[in-house]
Write a structure and sequence with these properties.
- This protein is mainly beta.
- The chain has a domain of about 55 residues.
- Helices cover about 10% and strands about 25% of the residues.
- A four-stranded antiparallel beta sheet has the order 1-2-3-4.
- The radius of gyration is 33 Å and the shape is elongated.
Length: about 100
């Protein structure tokens, strides 16, 4: 069977974004992924000061901005358990001085 034809836009797609609204319902923004990295996109709030500035600003989401934890650094098997600590010996009583 042959693969269905993909149009030119499908071949060039690098991600997708969804419109979200802030908890206070005052700000609309986008979230999504670009090239497998999670991003958040906001309207440029300084656009009025610089008409040639970008309309939107793209940021890595906090999850993508953190360095990935290397999986090789984690042990593949749990560390061996230590042998249980033996119970403390029973106290030795001093011999009585009035034995004789």
């Amino acid at each position: 069977m042959s693969e269905p034809n993909k149009n030119e836009w499908d071949k060039r797609e690098i991600g997708a974004l969804w419109v979200k609204t802030s908890a206070d319902e005052k700000t609309k923004f986008f979230t999504g992924e670009i090239d497998g990295r999670k991003v958040v996109v906001f309207k440029n709030k300084h656009k009025d000061k610089n008409p040639k500035g970008p309309d939107l600003r793209i940021y890595l989401s906090e999850e993508s901005a953190r360095p990935a934890q290397p999986t090789a650094a984690r042990p593949a098997t749990p560390a061996p358990r230590r042998a249980p600590t033996p119970p403390a010996p029973a106290p030795v009583e001093e011999p009585s001085k009035d034995i004789f």
